[in-house]
Write a structure and sequence with these properties.
Layout: E1 2-7, E2 12-15, E3 18-20, H1 27-38, E4 42-47, E5 59-62, H2 66-76, E6 82-85, E7 92-94, E8 113-115, H3 119-123, E9 131-138, H4 142-152, E10 157-162, E11 174-175, E12 177-181, E13 188-189, E14 193-194, H5 195-212
Parallel strand pairs: 1-4, 1-6, 4-5, 6-9, 9-10
Antiparallel strand pairs: 2-3, 7-8, 10-12, 11-14, 12-13
The structure holds cytidine-5'-monophosphate (C5P).
Residues 66, 85, 87, 89, 91, 116, 118-120, 134-136, 149, 153 line the site of cytidine-5'-monophosphate.
Length: 225
């Protein structure tokens, strides 16, 4: 199967040296890309600014901002049977960006922002029979928010994780996630495990879904599907 994975944060520049971003390190998305490549899938990994090596056998495309990420996903999606949106996309960007470093005296104490595009919603018309997977990193009630995002973004699967716990979420090598799908109402809570093992569980889910509905995973190549 040709699998498109996004990972890491985006950076929303105010000038060449200042930006808005978030705590994502890319570890979860890179682990999914590695797990998929290990299973023989053709993987394209669109990565925001992170300091991680590219997993063996994975084709990597680097991006900076949410708009760069959207452009890359729109360009690459047609050749892929599954999209795994693990990137922590910045919801807002500065309303104005300067091409040169702003001087302190030129800056205001309040930053004007404008919303970034929602990538999953924007590419939804291109979904066709592709499998779409999203992530919901929450600090409140992860399942309630995840259920809302599953429906709102038209996903096949959403992976919910509570990022308020020290052994799960940002910048650690382990994660504790719950899989929620549109069809099966019961959430599946996975135990605390390495991000690579979470990636393997996610790839196994994609393989099962593609096998259950081979007509819908239209881009899946017969030798790897
Ligand atoms: O940020 P949020 O919790 O809404 O993210 C849920 C899912 O939506 C994630 O899979 C994320 O990659 C995706 N997303 C997106 N475009 C955005 C923000 C989030 O596709 N602008």
């Amino acid at each position: 199967m040709d699998i498109l994975v996004t990972a890491g944060p985006t950076r929303e520049h105010l000038d060449p040296v200042r930006f808005l971003s978030n705590r994502s390190t890319g570890k979860m998305g890179f682990a999914i890309a590695q797990a998929a490549a290990e299973r023989g899938h053709a993987v394209t990994l669109v990565a925001g600014p992170v300091s991680l090596p590219t997993p063996p056998g994975v084709t990597r495309v680097d991006v900076v901002s949410a708009r760069d990420l959207l452009a890359a996903v729109e360009r690459l999606l047609p050749a892929h049977a599954a999209l795994v949106m693990c990137a922590a996309v910045a919801d807002w960007r500065p309303a104005a960006a300067s091409a040169r470093k702003l001087k302190k005296a030129e800056m205001r104490p309040v930053l004007a922002l404008e919303p970034n595009p929602d990538i999953l919603r924007t590419v939804r018309p291109l979904k066709g029979g592709r499998l779409f997977v999203g992530f919901a990193a929450e600090t409140g009630d992860p399942l309630a928010e995840a259920r809302r995002k599953l429906a709102d973004k038209g996903l096949d699967l959403i992976v919910a994780n509570d990022v308020s716990q020290p052994d799960a979420g940002f910048a650690v090598d382990t994660n504790r996630v719950t899989f929620l799908t549109a069809e099966e109402h019961a959430p599946v809570a996975l135990p605390l495990q390495s991000k690579l093992d979470v990636g393997r569980a996610l790839v196994a889910w994609l393989e099962r879904r593609a096998a259950a509905a081979p007509h819908s995973a239209s881009q899946a190549s017969p030798e790897t599907a």
